[in-house]
Amino acid sequence: MTIATLPTRAASLNYMSFSGRIEPADFNDLLTLYASDGGVRARHDKLLVFQPDVDLSALTDDVLASILTRLLTVTSQARKSLIVRTALVCLAPAQSAVLDRWRTLVDGQRGMLTEIAAFDAVQSAAVWIGLTADETDDIVQHQTAPAAVVVAAIAR
């Protein structure tokens, strides 16, 4: 499993690409990364792309609820003052049900200042988040770029 965070021109954007089998421990590692920077990443909009080979079958409803509980703890300070947008791009249609369950959990959370939407293309998600054409091009180029552009990756 790989979660790659890639550089973009949009300074206030967290772009992550998910591929392979995603395990609950992978999200724990990602949330530890979020907690390590004092919540800086939590205050940024997110563009999360789930690649065609992603396998989310290990993310049961109980696991998703546990991840959300930890996410709320890690991001508690950041959520007090601003609305964060999260765009979910699912390039693996068979996995979209898991992302739909995640959206339902997030939408049902009182006091969570976030907007969350699902897309089937990076370009439409980028428009929704408000990226410029150049910023969108950066994201699209990263989709096909070699692994050398990966700034940080959590791989198992």
Describe what you observe in this structure.
There is one protein chain. The chain is α/β, with parallel strands linked by helices and 156 residues long. It has a single domain, classed as STAS domain (Transcription Regulator spoIIAA), CATH 3.30.750. It contains five helices and six strands, in the order ββαβαβαβααβ. Strands 5-4-3-2-1-6 form a six-stranded mixed β-sheet, with helices on both faces. Strand 2 (13-19), helix 1 (24-36) and strand 3 (45-50) form a beta-alpha-beta unit. Helix 4 (122-129) packs antiparallel against helix 5. The protein is globular, with a radius of gyration of 14 Å.
Alpha carbon gyration radius: 14 Å
Q: The CATH topology is what?
A: Transcription Regulator spoIIAA
- Tell me the domain tally: 1
CATH class: Alpha Beta
Cross-sheet strand order for the largest sheet: 5-4-3-2-1-6
Could you give the count of β-strands? 6
Going by CATH, the architecture would be 2-Layer Sandwich
Can you write the helix and strand succession as a string? EEHEHEHEHHE
Corresponding CATH superfamily: STAS domain
Biggest sheet overview: 6 strands, mixed
**Main structural class:** alpha/beta
Spatial separation of the terminal alpha carbons: 5 Å
Name the descriptors.
single chain; 156 residues; alpha/beta; Transcription Regulator spoIIAA; six-stranded mixed beta sheet; 5 helices; 6 strands; 38% helix; disordered C terminus
Brief sketch in words of this structure:
With 156 residues, the protein is α/β, with parallel strands linked by helices.
